[in-house]
Amino acid sequence: MQYITDVREAKEIDRMTIQEIGIPSMVLMEKAALAVAGCVKSNAAPESHVLAVCGMGNNGGDGVAAARMLWEDGYPVTVSLIGNEENASEEMKKQLDIARKLGIHICTGLPSGEYDVILDALFGIGLSREVTGEFADAINWINEQDALRFAVDVPSGVNASTGEILAVAVVADFTITFGTNKRGIVLFPGCNYAGNVVVADIGFPKKVVEKVLPRTYTLTREDAMEMMPPRILRSNKGSYGKVLVIAGSPEISGACYLSAAAAYRMGCGLVKVFTAAENGPVIKNLLPEALVKTYDSELDYTQSLNRFDITKSLQEEIKWATCIVIGPGIGTAEPAGIMLDEVLKEKNKAVVIDADGLNVLAKKETYFVKREDGTRKICLPENVVLTPHLQEMTRLTRFELPVIRAKIVEQALLSLESANCQTLVLKDARTVVTDGGEVYINTIGNNALSTGGTGDVLSGMIAGLLAQGMRPTKAAVLGVCLHGLAAEEYVRRKGGRYSMMAGDLLDMLQEILPK
Ligand SMILES: NC(=O)C1=CN([C@@H]2O[C@H](COP(=O)(O)OP(=O)(O)OC[C@H]3O[C@@H](n4cnc5c(N)ncnc54)[C@H](OP(=O)(O)O)[C@@H]3O)[C@@H](O)[C@H]2O)[C@@H](O)CC1
Ligand SMILES: [K+]
């Protein structure tokens, strides 16, 4: 597991390390600078002419120190100072003093001349507002140069918490970030500016990081493999749970197939599909391993007798199941709403609500608390997992799409508002999973996933894990991570991002899951 910090957490780790543990700020800075210089030496030619563009905070101090280390190693180096030196931080003043005593070339403002390497040390986690004036000019100039760009801690101009661009930002080839990865260079659009990210250990004590306990984390492939539920030596199909997939409508059959097949592929013992009668033969043909139960989609479900029948039939299946998926391809007609209400009466079995299940949910005021500004908080119990993409999220919460896009972690948390309620899987290029407490940001996967049906596969995968006894949030995190790994495996094996279809993920699961 890798912690990802926002600005507040990163500053708190700095503060505690310096003030409570007693490691001097200059020691941390020297180590940060060593990491930057090391990254330059590993990636740039030995004769490279280096320019360090430095602001007046400690990020600038890192830049001056790294420039000095490269200078000691024989690189021709220039330091360019942007901003008023009178406002420089104590550490920055000390670094400048050292560099001047050594005779390193320092200029005020942007230099003329050409450089092979530029260190971007204008702003790090101290960036506090939009970039304007000479700072914006410097960033634009840096981006125009034909040089390798190394960003110190964070590309200047990127909000290190949200990934937003504060007017303009450096487009780096490498970012050397200190101690922990930063949320702003994991999330879009910030990650597009960071290039290759190196997380450098500069000596923040583990104890401090654990005490600050960053809220956000990500997983590696190894972490995911370790989280997999165990396979028992003496087992049978009853040992790994039963998934009920309530999905499909007269017009759509593929979604419930993909979801059901994915649940099986994740290792659950039995899958039953509850679907419109029109889908019965299709599912039996595509997935003979699944049990199938159907309802008559042509009946009038405003009639209480028909409502009673479908509810009764569904109740039996809910009783049978270990966990339930509702929504893929289910449509928004009357039966979908009746079935969703029935499923949500279940408080002990895990329930995944996906796709049209979410659109139906969005129309039911009883599951939400309205705020004065018209937005809504989702109020469902902790056995529920919701898997909206951003558009579905706007329907659920009434948050505006650009706001969710810009602040995906904050908006996910705001929609739940308190810990230990339902799990939210907010799907995007960086999917966020949270139950209101910890936040997982998925960094695995690729844009091959941007195709119809991949969401149905995900809902089935999560259910497959839930059926094997995983807690909702853990199952959601692991499902998202494995879903990304399957897409990466496809690209690795087939060499392209264009051709993948959702069904290919099912085949890739066979490749990536533990043998
Ligand atoms: N603490 C430590 O010991 C360690 C810190 N480390 C390093 O320090 C970095 C954090 O340093 P930091 O806190 O000094 O902030 P930093 O990113 O340099 O920016 C602050 C400066 O920018 C200015 N400013 C802000 N926004 C602006 C804008 N839009 N436009 C114009 N000016 C703007 C702001 O000015 P002011 O807001 O006061 O006007 C101030 O001058 C961190 O990312 C890491 O690299 C490492 O060495 C490890 C040890
Ligand atoms: K920077």
From TrEMBL:
Binds 1 potassium ion per subunit. Its EC number is 4.2.1.136, 5.1.99.6. The keyword Nucleus does not apply. Signal peptide: none annotated. It holds the Pfam family YjeF_N. K(+) binds at N59, D120, S156. Gene3D superfamilies: 3.40.1190.20, YjeF N-terminal domain (3.40.50.10260). AMP binds at K427, D428, A429, R430, T431, G455. The keyword Metal-binding applies. Residues 220-515 form the YjeF C-terminal domain. It comes from the Bacteria. It catalyses: (6R)-NADHX = (6S)-NADHX; (6S)-NADHX + ADP = AMP + phosphate + NADH + H(+); (6S)-NADPHX + ADP = AMP + phosphate + NADPH + H(+); (6R)-NADPHX = (6S)-NADPHX. In the N-terminal section; belongs to the NnrE/AIBP family. Catalyzes the dehydration of the S-form of NAD(P)HX at the expense of ADP, which is converted to AMP. Together with NAD(P)HX epimerase, which catalyzes the epimerization of the S- and R-forms, the enzyme allows the repair of both epimers of NAD(P)HX, a damaged form of NAD(P)H that is a result of enzymatic or heat-dependent hydration. Bifunctional enzyme that catalyzes the epimerization of the S- and R-forms of NAD(P)HX and the dehydration of the S-form of NAD(P)HX at the expense of ADP, which is converted to AMP. This allows the repair of both epimers of NAD(P)HX, a damaged form of NAD(P)H that is a result of enzymatic or heat-dependent hydration. Homotetramer. HAMAP family: NADHX_dehydratase, NADHX_epimerase. This is Bifunctional NAD(P)H-hydrate repair enzyme. It comes from Jutongia huaianensis.
